[in-house]
């Protein structure tokens, strides 16, 4: 099996920091040629199914994200997961341990879209035995802060040279116009789309399209994530943790989880479990040690349900080959 080397890992972390950074800029920071970066990028696309995806931060748009746990009969899990993955308002679909649970992260554009899925479609779906919908209340880690930022492949000076300016503080939700929507839709499929493609999608000049991307990034609406297969990096044990935490400790527990190398997403949520975290470990033994030694020692954690992920059906884009 292909295993990325140190330069590959540096490239992955560089793209996580700035998914649209030119290869020439990355090459200069890494001390290699442009051709070497381009060649490594192509190999990662083939061997690790690397892709850079532009993502909209719905909290900056005044929208609420939801995480839904669906339990169903064994024969229904995969068809249900595939159907949900085809929806444009879902950003993650996972088949969970036992093969009877599907976890769905959804980003409805409106209250009507939310109610259509949660109150109409899902309750009417055959062979779904139960559904728990959790509102995401607060993000501790994830989104622009991808897991690759924790692999420490780059030196601090290299990180500083590649890290884009932080988004501006916004008091009110950002309103999108049709050109913004068209641009976000294109970048959702290819975060490194050319300026010419962006101009064609928005009906603007290339300089106008570039300014629009810059404006959306500065507003915190647009950020970039790196998708890839974890196993070539040596990480084969994925799980979702549902934590029941004493309310006065919610913030401190979430902040502690955000600092753990194993955690790629953590948020406070509504429901019986009030913190949800997605973790990535090398082996099941390492996952056990993480639960027993690190999570178990955090003050305020009252109970933890660990649910291994059997297969990711959708991350940000739907690929029926997964």
From TrEMBL:
Keywords: DNA-binding, Transcription, Transcription regulation. The keyword DNA-binding applies. One of its GO terms (molecular function) is sequence-specific DNA binding. It comes from the Bacteria. GO terms for cellular component: cytosol. One of its GO terms (biological process) is response to amino acid. Residues 176-236 form the HTH asnC-type domain. This is AsnC family protein. It comes from Streptomyces shenzhenensis. The lineage of its organism: Bacteria, Bacillati, Actinomycetota, Actinomycetes, Kitasatosporales.
